[in-house]
UniProtKB/TrEMBL annotation:
<feature type="signal peptide">
    <location>
        <begin position="1"/>
        <end position="21"/>
    </location>
</feature>
<dbReference type="Pfam" id="PF08386">
    <property type="entry name" value="Abhydrolase_4"/>
</dbReference>
<keyword id="KW-0732">Signal</keyword>
<comment type="similarity">
    <text>Belongs to the peptidase S33 family.</text>
</comment>
<dbReference type="InterPro" id="IPR051601">
    <property type="entry name" value="Serine_prot/Carboxylest_S33"/>
</dbReference>
<feature type="compositionally biased region" description="Low complexity">
    <location>
        <begin position="40"/>
        <end position="50"/>
    </location>
</feature>
<feature type="domain" description="Peptidase S33 tripeptidyl aminopeptidase-like C-terminal">
    <location>
        <begin position="453"/>
        <end position="554"/>
    </location>
</feature>
<feature type="region of interest" description="Disordered">
    <location>
        <begin position="34"/>
        <end position="80"/>
    </location>
</feature>
<feature type="domain" description="AB hydrolase-1">
    <location>
        <begin position="143"/>
        <end position="325"/>
    </location>
</feature>
<keyword id="KW-0645">Protease</keyword>
<dbReference type="InterPro" id="IPR000073">
    <property type="entry name" value="AB_hydrolase_1"/>
</dbReference>
<dbReference type="GO" id="GO:0008233">
    <property type="term" value="F:peptidase activity"/>
</dbReference>
<dbReference type="GO" id="GO:0006508">
    <property type="term" value="P:proteolysis"/>
</dbReference>
<dbReference type="Pfam" id="PF00561">
    <property type="entry name" value="Abhydrolase_1"/>
</dbReference>
<dbReference type="InterPro" id="IPR029058">
    <property type="entry name" value="AB_hydrolase_fold"/>
</dbReference>
<protein>
    <submittedName>
        <fullName>Probable exported protease</fullName>
        <ecNumber>3.4.-.-</ecNumber>
    </submittedName>
</protein>
<feature type="compositionally biased region" description="Gly residues">
    <location>
        <begin position="51"/>
        <end position="63"/>
    </location>
</feature>
Amino acid sequence: MVTHRPARLATALAASALVLAGCGVLPFGGGTGTGGSDGGASSSASSTDGSAGGGSASGGTGTSDGALPKAGTSHAAGLKTDPAEDQAYASYYGQSIDWQPCEDYAGAQCGTLTVPKAWDDPSTGDLELAMVKVPATGQRTGTLFMNPGGPGGSGVSFVGDSATMIVGSDVREKYDMVGFDPRGVAGSSPVRCLDDAQTDEYLSATYDMTTPEGLEEGRTWAKTVADSCAQNSGDLLEYVDTLSAARDMDVMRAAVDSEKLDYLGFSYGTYLGATYADLYPSRAGRMVLDGAIDPTLTGDQIAEGQAGGFEVATERFAAWCVEQGSETCPLKGDATQGVQQIRDFFAATSEQPVATDDPQRPLTGALARSGVLVGLYNDENWPYVAQGLQEAMTGDGTLLLQLADMSSERDADGTYASNGSFAITAVNCLDHPAVEDEAWMKEDSARMAQEYPTFGPMLGYNGLTCGAWPAGPLREPAPLDAKGSGPILVVGTTYDPATPYPWAQALAEQLDDGHLITWNGDGHTAYGRSGGCVEDAVDQYLLAGTVPAEGLTCE
């Protein structure tokens, strides 16, 4: 068995925070970007595990009575030819990458690749994508492309920082590991919105969306962000959908001389990978999709799934915490009482922020929720959440603020290392339509706040952000079957708060040759955290093409 070392806290938190969000959704490792603490649109969100007490098995029923906006057409949809065989795209498919030593990542090589901005009209212009490669440690047999999630997660920093922690030594020996920033993200023609000071204000903003005043503040922030992104990004916002990013991946495949694309995607990366396999089933190689998103869900259903998932995660954290005793856990009584104390703490910080070691940045209700929420992505981080709550409840919010900053990739000097807080919105508003009728949003958000009182209030009003957005949506919710592909592994964690286990079940069922691996565990995604069972099955598949026994369940 190969031993997998856990990623360091900062890397794990940053990756988990950039899993999928936008419109009112959290990170699938993402989200919309604001932190209205008592019912505002969140900055990003994925969903939860229905079997563990979250939303319904489909991830929620949020759009049962609301009409979705009519979707437009992606510039990457409906191409009449295969770009790989069309002379109009020959300059893109004929590229090779000039790999050079990276300045920021020891032992890694960095490069760039050019792709058409509009896949249906290359004359529109080009986008430049940032890439990183960590060479195989032994006799190379292939290239393994990787995506950490989001949307908005940087694959360059993910692989560049943590290549030795992501996969086992046997896989590193045989594969070049390649990470990339999808279009619109980080180093790849990034979406630009608020400046750093404005982003601080945006992410700390705390307001009660159940009141007229709070709702108006939510509207104001939605418009402010949308206007800023439109002004600073222009028409790029029309071109950062996942279908376009999946076509970009085929150019990457060709650039490394691979006949098929081998791939390991986490969270949002599962949606990107499944989209690629659906576009190019004959070129989909060994693909592992861990922490899956169900492509049939709307933005509202995603948000409800996550609200339920994080409700269950909070309950399980509280049960663990009270078992640790009063020296390390500030919660009193049983788990139910502990959950209520966390809710009361959020309400108190919304009224009166807690001081931190930065006099200019107190811990607001929105930041407190963000700090706790990101820690719930991985049960290995629960001790940090407990410590952060203990300190904040006694007047020092520094640790929870640091956790919140890790989730948004804010550095100590006040700069943001990535544009993830806005890229997630830009992508999700194109990919996942949400109901924009305000009367429906008000009623549905009130229901979510009642059913999922810990994080439900921050996950309502999904359509507010995307309703103000300058572009989208470009896709109707629909299954992806990748008909004609080889076997694809889908990994689901039973108590995953961000991408519920039923989503993994749904994707594995939709795929023409999908195979589900189940891990009975807590936290978001399984590979590298399950203690060996998931890792061994995935590694054997990547190295030898061995498909695990049907129904494999890891404890």
